[in-house]
Every structure is written in structure tokens, then in C-alpha cells.
Amino acid sequence: MGETSQMHVNNIILHIVDDQNTEGSAKEILADFNVKTAQNLDEALNSIKAEVPSMILINQELKNLSGLELFRKIHSFYPEIRCIMASSSNNIPLAVSATKLGISDFISRPFEAQKLLLSVNKLLAQKEIPSFIFPEAFWLKGQSTETKNFYAGIQGLAASAKNIFLFGETGINKKEAVLLIHNNSFQRSKKVKTIDFSHFPHENMESYFWSALTEVMAEPEAGSTVNKDERFGTVFYENIDSLDDNFKSSLFSFLSERREKIDKSIISVIGIKDKAKTDISAQKHFQGIEIPPLRDRREDIPFLVIQYLKLFAVKYGKSVSALSNEAWDFLMLYDYPGNYDELSSLIEQAMLHSNSAILGLNDLPIDNKMISEVSRSRASMENGADENKLIKEKMLYSVLMAKTDNNTTRVADFLDTPETILTQRMDEIN
After folding, report:
1. What is the model's pTM?
2. Could you give all domains of the chain from N- to C-terminal order, each with its CATH number?
């Protein structure tokens, strides 16, 4: 899957217990840990959905369902979470069965402080720390602050099993970002499913959709032989922006409530273009993360440009491996309303147009609108250090002069500046 790095692990212990005395004893002994409690399967799954614990402590003797059966259900959803089982009987066959099912340790009740702490600390010490899996798609790679913050946000998502609003503007491939989220979740061993609303027939779309969704999210039946690798761990909902508000509200409610016979472990990712139109605070079972637009990742642009150069040089059998200074200046100044898709298209079209080993500014398919946008970037030069402002200003003049064949009259028109003032300023900074 690619590169990895270590990820933080919390010290949350989920204790599944319906006996107050046992609950109080465990909390006292495990006072240095963040102990959360659940009395039944639904409470346990909801707790895990909110924040995945480092481990589970489960009582075998529960009122409605044996601890072993309850573990079997949780383990089918979250096989990575390790578990200690506590029983009031020293039943060796039970301990053997529990171990075969995946229980990591089996201890007796009432708890003995030293034995419980030893078992918990041993399990946490052995716990495999999930590693951050870096993206395969090169456009998601980089060293800018925005990129690193995005990675940190994905790590935060991994600590929770909540549903996700994935925000991304036009020109951003959300599917590849969803794969990055999935690979860094507790569902990484399962499959990703995309439900694209644009593929449903307009007539009776809702009935087709609900039928497909119920099938995808169906809870595995008891004794099912379906391998967990064949089940879906993440479902991505694409092109939801065009749906009416009532339909969207129904979908959000369905994904939040997860009624009977629906797999509560599946992570639902809803792709949204317009962040301003979505009220995250109204959806307590969702959390949001935004794929940074390209204009906020200028530090990463040189790396991305080189990757696109390599990609299209191979695709079209060309030996282009560099850009002129003027071309670099333009690419660094431009704001990319079409984001990564637009940068990719610019480099591809330039590659097709060029007959040189170096792409020049004239090879880039730049129109007057794009030039005007770059010209307006002069306003942003009011911020930042003097040296940076000067560099940006020189880059801007370089781009405009190259694109207008050194016609200062046209450049002055673009900048809405008297030509005499422009030429004087250009002489000063050069």
C-alpha cells in the first residue's frame, strides 16, 4: 500500500459490564486509564463508533447475551480490537473456546488488582500500533503545512468510527482521498464501495438507491461464511450535491441511526463540493475533513509539476523534463480554480504542444482570463515579507511580458496601470 509511519494510540478501555460492583471495581483498579462502559451490544457498538478503544474488557456473565457471543459480534465488525474476557468461573473449556475465537486473555472475577493490571498492560504493550499509510496518488503527497494538516486530520478520523463529510472543490478526485481514509481506518482489511448518484435513473431514483444501499450495508447473518475481506468497510457517496434537501436529510438520518440488520461498523463518506451549504454541527454522527485546494499548497506545486511532467512524458513518448523560468513563474502565481485536474491538463496540453525539451510559457494553454487572474494576484503581494513581495512582483511582470511578447502597453492594460509608471517600476525591481 505504500509508505507508513507510526500513529498515536489512545488509552481507552471499553468495559462491557452490567454489574455495578464489577464496574466499580474495574474503574478503581484502572484509574490511570480512560475506562468507558457499555451494558449491551448496541451501547458497545455506539461507543466504538464514537471513538475506537485501545482494547475491550468484557464480562462473560451478562444478562441478555453471553460475553462470548457479544464478543463474536463485535469481532466480526472490528477484528483489530483486542479483548480480555473476565469470568466468575474457572471454566477451562470456556477459556479455550474464547482463545480460539480471538480473545487475547482470560481472567477471573472478582478482579485481583495486580492480575488485572498485568493483563491490561501486557495487552497494550503488545498492541500493534496502526501505521499511517501514505497515499498512492502523487497529487495527495507533499510537504506543505496544509498537506501535513490533512494527514493529521485523517489520523484523527482513524481514532473514531464516525461517518465523514469529505469536502473538496471542483477538480479534486475525492475517490483517491477516500481510499487514503479507508487505508488508514480500522476497516482497511475490507473493501471500498462507491455509490454514485449520477448513475441512478432519474425516475424512481430513490427506490433504486435505497434498495442498493440496504444490500451494501446489510449486517452479516450469524454463522455467515462470507470472509471479512469480501465485505465493505467504507462506502463513498459521490455526486450528492445535486440531490434535494429532503432526500439528503433522509440519507443522513439513515446513516446516523443504523437500525437493525444494518452493519454498524461501515464508515460512510459523503463527498461534498460546497462546504458552506452543509451544517456539520447539525449532524452529530458525522465529522468533516477538507481536501486542501491546490492554491493553498503552493509549496507542493514544484513536486506536483515534476510528477505530471514524468507522467505525460512517458504517455506521449517525449523527452521533456523541465520548464522555463517564465512557465514556472506562471504556475506558481496562478490560483487554479480547477485545482489538480486543471494543473494536470495544463501540463498535458503543454506537453502535446511543445517540440522542445523545455516547456515554455507559450506552450501552456493560457488564455486572457487566466492572465487577468494572475494579474489580480498582485493584490496578495500586500501581505508577507518585503523580499517575498518583491519576488512575486518580479514573477508577475516576467509572466506578463513573456505572454505579450514584451509589449508593455498590453501589460499596463492588464494591470490597469499607466505605462510610464509600469516601466519605471520594472526598471526599479530589475
Report:
1. 0.70
2. 4-126 (3.40.50.2300), 134-292 (3.40.50.300), 298-429 (1.10.8.60)
